[in-house]
Design a protein that fits this description.
heterodimer, A: alpha/beta, Rossmann fold, Alpha-Beta Plaits, 2 domains, six-stranded mixed beta sheet, four-stranded antiparallel beta sheet, 11 helices, 14 strands, 27% strand, B: alpha/beta, abc type-2 transporter like fold, five-stranded mixed beta sheet, 7% strand
Chain lengths: 307, 421
């Protein structure tokens, strides 16, 4: 559905995109992950036709979006990172205005706005000024405004930043519903749990390049990352600790706690328990840190996602 | 296309402080200036007032009289033909012409009334009033400095005693030599305008309105309304223009760009809303002046509407241009305050233009305030027809200012505002 081909963009001598290419299939939930300044927003700005690339192209349904920007924009909805609403307008007035820009007939628009306000749990507050809303409520309207013209593709640029858990859960439910209804969603986020929960595929972008792409399982298997378990002992003598660490190279001790780097926890954990018993130490607690997107990201980019 | 200006108008009227600044503050200032300019005739006497002189007598004595007028401290004379003088007054370039009619030299010799006439533009009554005050004492003295004083005295005594008894006439004629000495001494020593001898001798200038204005409208009021309204309008439109930067800062501009429409519509929408609010603001100001101060508008509606629209067009273009030109709200605020105050000061919003020195009056043409205020004068005071070249030329200048600034705003909008990163 969307083909990104060799996009390049330079601002003031800084190369923001260095020829990135990737494809997004129809109905797919595609996560674009990267630290600040990696090129996510530039990519979305080009995909949503408000920024021209220096070179490369974006095809939607096989058509270059630069050919007919208006048609491309009608197909897409964008949830911006900022809360881009008029604070002095009510939720209803905001949605009426933003919906009207996409040429939705008035009567139809009114019906869609009511549906949207119900969906996001704000129907009762529809006539309140948006500036009186909580951050979470504003975020909900911010998303609703991008969906009124029923786009086939939605770009969501960190749509859940800085909101309360209640709003976050409501937004998650709506996003899942949209995905189930077959909408193609391109999602950027700093929250790994969101990427792990929603994304069919993930593209990891850093320094203007896609450095890894695939499903979460594909990324895990390609990463060759070891999983970590932390075993806390009741009491641990130096000799006992030395015996354990020599048996599992790469392990490390901190007071009564030993961290083990394992390739396969299921196979290796029983051995740790047996060995501990043999040398006469009592296990108080075992914590397992499985490979996740966070560790994969850290391994690939050397950066925390929130760098 | 109309969705964007409608949105802007709704937002404008929801923002109560902005509405207050747009309407209440100018109304308060108009009230203040209206009272202040009620006594505008007492204005600054340091600046020279321009006066044309047309010499139809063309004698040595008329040339000498002109030389005397040239030395007057408060008057800047300009020697022209009568036709050129009339043309300049009708175009609003000059306020008056002092005509030295044929027979001036003979009148000086014989002591009869001097054939002097001041033809003037009633719209510039304040200037002409000041001119008259400076001119009359000199005219009183002309027969004594250039003509035949004794003949003048004889003629005056004759006139003063025409209804008296033969005895009284005889008595006065006997004392005329002494009276002449004392009066001429007084004239020589007293240069004030309350000169008793001058008043006694009573040589007057015939005053003729060349361009008449309606008497029930006050020039001071028109000055107060038009000057203040234009200045405050400039502040308002800058605020409206700044909405562009606010939209950029808050992300709504970016969201507008995501929508399927030409990005230039965002600017055009802002221009339309700025124009509508400007027209509304000016209309409210003039209606206020009409209702509260009795400014006569009824017979000037077409010309007033044309001037309001042209002013709104030029001023709103200025606001949008400034917002497109600047890179931040703070930059616009600082820059706009400076530019508006300078334009208002030199353009006649704060002080009537004729109170200013000549070079300042020439400089005034670079200010949008000048063209607009002159347009309002043309309509409300000079009562020029809407098809008069003088009035239309001012409207044309306002429209041109609007076109040029809007054109520049389009360029700067593309360069500064639409640049998303």
């Amino acid at each position: 559905m969307i083909e990104i081909k060799n996009l390049r963009k330079t601002y003031d001598g800084h190369e923001a995109l260095k020829g990135i290419s990737f494809n997004i299939r129809e109905g797919e939930f595609y996560g674009l992950l990267g630290p600040n300044g990696a090129g996510k927003t530039t990519t979305i700005s080009i995909m949503s036709s408000i920024l021209e690339p220096d070179s490369g192209e974006v095809l939607i349904n096989g058509k270059n979006i630069t050919g007919d920007i208006t048609e491309a924009k009608q197909l897409t909805g964008v949830v911006p990172q900022e809360i881009a609403l008029y604070g002095d307008f009510s939720a209803f007035e905001n949605l009426s205005f933003w919906g009207s820009l996409y040429n939705v007939p008035n009567r139809e628009l009114k019906q869609r706005i009511e549906n949207m306000l119900n969906l996001f749990g704000l129907y009762d507050r529809r006539h309140d000024k948006v500036k009186a809303y909580s951050g979470g409520m504003k975020r909900r309207i911010n998303i609703a405004a991008a969906l009124l013209h029923q786009p086939k593709i939605v770009f969501m640029d960190e749509p859940t930043v800085g909101i309360d858990p209640q709003s976050r859960n409501l937004i998650y439910e709506v996003i899942e519903q949209l995905h189930q209804e077959g909408m193609t969603i391109v999602y950027t986020t700093h929250y790994m749990e969101e990427a792990e929960r929603f994304c069919d595929r993930i593209g990891i972008i850093d320094n203007g390049q896609i450095i890894e792409e695939g499903t979460l399982q594909e990324l895990k298997s390609r990463s060759n990352l070891k999983e970590v378990i932390e075993v806390t002992y009741d009491k641990l003598e130096d000799t006992q600790a030395g015996e354990i660490i020599s048996r599992w190279p790469g392990s490390s001790r901190k007071e009564n706690k030993i961290s083990f780097l394992l390739t396969d926890i299921q196979k290796e954990l029983p051995g740790i328990v047996i060995k501990s018993s043999e040398i006469g130490v009592t296990i108080n607690n075992i914590e397992i840190q499985r490979t996740n997107l966070e560790t994969i990201f850290l391994n690939l980019t050397g950066k925390q996602l929130r760098d | 296309m109309l969705k964007l200006p409608i949105k802007d108008l709704k937002l404008f009227f929801k923002d109560r402080p902005s509405v207050l600044v747009t309407f209440a503050v100018p109304i308060a200032l108009i009230t203040l200036f209206a009272f202040a300019f009620g006594g505008a005739g007492q204005g600054n006497k340091e600046n020279k007032i321009s006066m044309q002189i047309a010499d139809l007598d063309n004698t040595d004595l008329s040339a000498k009289a002109i030389a005397v007028f040239d030395t007057l401290k408060n008057i800047r004379t300009n020697h022209v033909s009568y036709e050129a003088a009339v043309e300049a007054i009708k175009k609003g370039k000059e306020n008056s012409v002092l005509i030295i009619h044929k027979g001036f030299a003979d009148s000086l010799e014989t002591g009869s009334e001097l054939p002097l006439e001041l033809q003037y533009d009633e719209a510039r009554e304040i200037e002409v009033g000041l001119l008259q005050q400076s001119l009359i004492p000199t005219v009183f003295r002309l027969p004594f400095s250039l003509g035949n004083p004794k003949a003048v005295m004889a003629g005056r005594f004759e006139k003063l005693t025409e209804n008296s008894s033969p005895e009284v006439k005889e008595n006065i004629l006997h004392q005329s030599d002494n009276l002449f000495e004392s009066l001429s001494q007084g004239i020589a020593e007293n240069s004030g305008t309350t000169d008793p001898a001058g008043a006694f001798l009573g040589n007057e200038i015939k005053m003729t309105k060349l361009v008449a204005a309606k008497k029930d409208s006050s020039l001071g009021l028109i000055q107060a309304v038009s000057g203040t309204a234009v200045m405050m309008l400039l502040f308002s439109v800058v605020g409206i223009g700044m909405g562009l930067l606010e939209e950029k800062q808050e992300g709504t501009l970016k969201r507008l760009l995501y929508a399927p429409m030409n990005p230039m519509k965002i600017l055009f929408g802002k221009m339309i809303s700025a124009n509508i609010i400007s027209i509304f603001q000016l209309a409210v100001m003039f209606l206020f002046a009409a209702l509260v101060f009795g400014l006569e508008l009824k017979n000037h509606s077409t010309g007033l509407l044309i001037t309001i629209i042209a002013t709104a067009f030029a001023c709103s273009a200025f606001g949008v241009f400034l917002a497109s030109f600047a890179k931040s709200r703070q930059q616009v605020q600082g820059l706009s305050t400076l530019i508006i105050l300078v334009m208002s000061a030199i353009g006649g919003s704060m002080i009537p233009i004729f109170f200013m020195p000549a070079f300042m009056q020439k400089l005034a043409v670079i200010s949008v305030n000048y063209w607009s205020i002159q347009g309002f004068y043309d309509v409300l005071w000079r009562e020029l027809p809407v098809f008069s070249t003088t009035f239309l030329s001012r409207i044309l200048v306002l429209v041109l200012i609007g076109v040029v600034l809007n054109f520049l705003a389009v360029i700067m909008f593309k360069k500064n505002i639409l640049k998303m990163n």
